[in-house]
Write a structure and sequence with these properties.
Blueprint (H helix, E strand, L loop, with lengths): L16 E4 L5 E4 L1 E8 L5 E9 L10 H6 L2 E6 L2 E6 L1 H10 L5 E4 L3 H4 L1 H9 L3 E4 L9 H20 L7 H13 L11 H6 L14 E5 L12 E9 L6 E5 L4 E5 L2 E4 L2 E2 L13 E5 L28 E2 L6 E5 L11 H8 L6 H4 L3 H16 L16 H12 L15 E8 L10 E8 L2 E9 L7 H25 L8 E5 L2 H8 L16 H7 L3 E5 L3
């Protein structure tokens, strides 16, 4: 943990917590990331998962965490020397072999006293090049140049910020690891190491636009199902991709990702967090929106730049950008909003019949009503006046204007339902009518009355079908409450006045009186067994 912000290349601002110190005082942590430390040899070492606490006046080092990460620590005369032993253990564990010799140049990190002593203790022979003769280490020098040039090309191809040079280097090494080389007789290093050929179907273009699926546990009902990110590499610990989320300025590890490899992000200024002043719209797409300029003046030279809306080059859907400053006073309303205003429904019949599309829609609706036999059109009797359905509805509302449902304050958010049926109540076809009502706390929130499509052979069957219909409604309400933050931990009680129907919902076996019931009406049995719904008996 440190209070020195300059040690970080960038900070993951999503990791904000409060930490209690040894003296009992709490301090605010504004994020965490990787810090870069100078070594005695003039090189740099990286320490991961370092927390940034602005009000901390000193640096805290966790010896336990460093030891867990396979570092060796030596405290001497007020100095802590850190040596990384992870590479040695990793190689020996994966090959079941011991490292016997190490060849390198005379770089400071290779001839540092602590490292030389470590090799001596581990009985590792050191082969060093002659001073100032890099040609004796030509393989490593050429490989370093290849990796650096690959990373540089990837960053410039997508106009990517240099802040992500580390991720570009790691991705370049990963690609070389899966690429064949003549030194290994056209085999890949991966194949030589693991003795089988690697798959390359998962490789993607570095720095391209990526859309990561948000887990349903982290989104609400009408939230977007994806987050727009930038692809920055492959996770070393998971079979997943590493993405940079500009909204949170953090790294996302995800496997469910859709890539737009031809698209690139437009950065407005190096090292500045500035949102785009352009309005970018996809022609032919139904998803449009207005840009958010809440953070327009939020700038920082120490964190990675905030990318603007991506401009797609070469994709199947064309794009164009219109600068806000080029709009005339008459066109300052965003185009998406203008489209929404122009598509409003007509306010009257006379206005609707002037447009062919509305006339066609009305004709389709009339045909649907005729097909379902909702009503039949007939000539208006002489001397009678048509009042219309809307007037009947208004008359009903006017007569019940003093009626209402009371919702008490502080009531427990507990879903509860009632179900009933009217067996053979339809005179013409003897089909059943089922009904259900659900309440939360002290008031009813939903109710339904529906004529079923079957003829029940008994009152038990009629009540059982009605209960299944109510159970389906209960599952929808449970899911809705969960999305609103009121997850129902207990099974939802549905009360029914037929004992036989209650027993049938809890009886797995079928018998002669129920085996003829359609399979879909046995769905309630699964819900009862899963303890999501509980059918209970009540008096009529």
């Amino acid at each position: 943990m440190t209070g020195q912000k300059e040690l970080f290349d960038h900070i993951d601002g999503t990791k904000k917590v409060k930490v209690r110190m040894g003296n009992g005082k709490k301090i605010q942590v504004e994020g965490k990331s990787t810090v870069k430390l100078d070594t005695m040899a003039g090189k740099h070492k990286l320490i991961n998962n370092v927390q940034y606490a602005p009000k901390l006046d000193y640096n805290l080092l966790s010896v336990g965490q460093l030891m867990t990460a396979h570092h060796k620590l030596l405290f001497d005369e007020g100095v802590c020397a850190i040596t990384n032993k992870k590479a040695k253990k990793l190689v020996e564990n994966e090959t079941d072999m011991k490292i016997k010799a190490l060849r390198s140049d005379r770089g400071g990190e290779f001839i540092a006293q602590d490292f030389m002593k470590f090799c001596e203790v581990e009985c590792i022979r050191r082969d060093l090049n002659a001073p100032y003769t890099p040609e004796q280490n030509g393989v490593s020098e050429r490989k370093n140049r290849t990796v650096v040039e690959m990373a540089t090309s990837m960053l410039h191809e997508k106009n990517f910020s240099k802040v992500f040079w580390g991720e570009a280097i790691a991705t370049a090494i990963y690609i070389r690891y899966l690429s064949p080389t003549r030194a290994l007789y056209n085999r890949t290093p991966y194949e030589v190491w693991y003795d089988y050929k690697p798959s390359i179907h998962h490789l993607k273009v570095f720095g391209c636009v990526a859309y990561s699926l948000k887990p349903k546990q982290h989104r609400k009902k009408f939230d977007s199902k994806t987050r727009k990110c930038i692809f920055i590499g492959y996770s070393p610990n998971s079979k997943a991709y590493q993405l940079y989320d500009p909204a949170t300025r953090g790294v996302v590890i995800s496997r469910d990702v859709t890539f737009d490899e031809l698209a690139k992000w437009c950065f407005k200024g190096e090292g500045k967090h500035e949102l785009s002043s352009e309005l970018v719209m996809n022609v032919g797409s139904t998803s449009m929106g207005c840009p958010n300029n809440d953070n327009r003046n939020n700038e920082s030279n120490e964190e990675p730049p905030e990318p603007q809306t991506p401009i797609n080059h070469g994709s199947s859907s064309s794009t164009y950008a219109t600068s806000a400053s080029d709009q005339t006073p008459e066109s300052k309303t965003p185009k998406a909003c203008q489209l929404a205003l122009s598509s409003m429904e007509p306010s009257s019949f006379d206005e609707a019949v002037e447009h062919k599309e509305w006339v066609d829609s009305m004709q389709v609706e009339l045909e649907a009503l005729k097909h379902h036999k909702t009503w039949s059109l007939t000539e208006l009797p002489e001397g009678k006046k048509a009042i219309g359905l809307n007037k009947r509805v208004l008359r009903y509302v006017a007569g019940t204007i003093d009626y209402g449902i009371w919702y008490g304050k502080g009531e427990e958010i507990c879903l509860e339902g009632y179900t009933d049926s009217d067996w053979a109540s339809a005179i013409d076809d003897r089909k059943i009518v089922s009904a259900s009502v659900f309440s939360i706390g002290s008031g009813v929130v939903t109710w339904s009355s529906k004529k079923q499509l079957i003829v029940a052979l008994s009152s038990t069957e009629a009540e059982y079908v009605a209960a299944t219909s109510a159970a389906c409604q209960a599952m929808w309400l449970r899911q809705l409450l969960s999305e609103l933050g009121y997850e129902q931990m207990k099974a939802t009680s549905i009360f029914c006045d037929n004992i036989s129907a209650v027993f049938l919902s809890k009886n797995v076996a079928l018998h002669s009186k129920s085996k003829h019931i359609d399979i879909k009406y046995h769905y309630i049995k699964d819900l009862v067994e899963a303890k999501q719904v509980n059918l209970e008996t009540c008096h009529t």
